[in-house]
Amino acid sequence: MSPRGIPVDPAERADRILDAAARLLLRYGHDRTTINDIAREAGIAKGSVYAHWRSRDRLFLALLRREQAVLLAQVRDRLRAAGRPAGLELLLAESVRAYQRSPLVTAVLTRDTEILGSLARAAAEEGRPNGGVAELVATLRTKGLVRTDRTLPEQITVLSAVYLGYFLTAPLMPDDFRVPDEAVPGLVAEAVWRALQRPEPLTPDEVAVMDRAVHDHLDRTLTIAEERLHAALATEETA
C-alpha cells in the first residue's frame, strides 16, 4: 500500500526505483549514491526499496541488467525495421547507435569508475552477455561468410579495438577531429566490416543466411538478458 492506502503495483514501483537510481548514478556516481538518496528521488520510503533489493549493489546490478536488456531490444527493433537484410555491419552500426543513447551501458563497456565506482568490476561481468559478438563471428566463419585467413582471436581483437576504441577515445578527441555523433556508427561498422569481409561478395543465398544468423544471435542474446533481468527483479516482495 502507498501512504494514502492506494494499492501499489510492485513492478511499477520497481521501475520507479530503478529510474531514480539511474538518474543518481549518472549525476553522482555509485560510491556517492545511497539507498536513502534513491528512496527520496523515487518519492517512496526507504523500506520500500529494501522490499525489492536487500542491498544497494543488488539494486544497481538490477538496473544495469535492465539497461542492457533495453539496449538489445532497441537494436533488435532497429534491425527488424531496417527494410534490408541484417549483416554484421548493420548490427555493429545499430549497436554503436544504441550505446550512444545509453550512458549507463556505455559506462559498463568502458569500465567508467567515475560512474560505477567500486561496482565497476562486477558491472563489467554483468555487461558481458554469454558468447557476445565473438560467438556470432565464429558462426559466420563456419558458414564461410567472413574471411578465415585470420584467426578468430585476431578478428575479435580488431573488432574490439575499433568498437571499444571509439567510446574510450571520443572524450579525448580535439575539436578539429570530432565528427557528428550520427556519423560514427557507420564509420565504426564499416571499419570493422572491411577487416572481416571476405574478398568475394556474398551471394543472395548467403546474404539470407547472414541475415538469419544475425537475427538468431540477437534474439538469443536478448533472451539471456531478459532472463537475467527477471532473476534480478524476482527478489521483490509483493506489497
From TrEMBL:
Residues 11-71 form the HTH tetR-type domain. The keyword Secreted does not apply. Keywords: DNA-binding, Transcription, Transcription regulation. Residues 34-53 bind DNA. GO terms for molecular function: DNA binding. It comes from the Bacteria. The keyword Transferase does not apply. PANTHER family: HTH-TYPE TRANSCRIPTIONAL REGULATOR YJDC (PTHR47506:SF1), TRANSCRIPTIONAL REGULATORY PROTEIN (PTHR47506). This is TetR family transcriptional regulator.
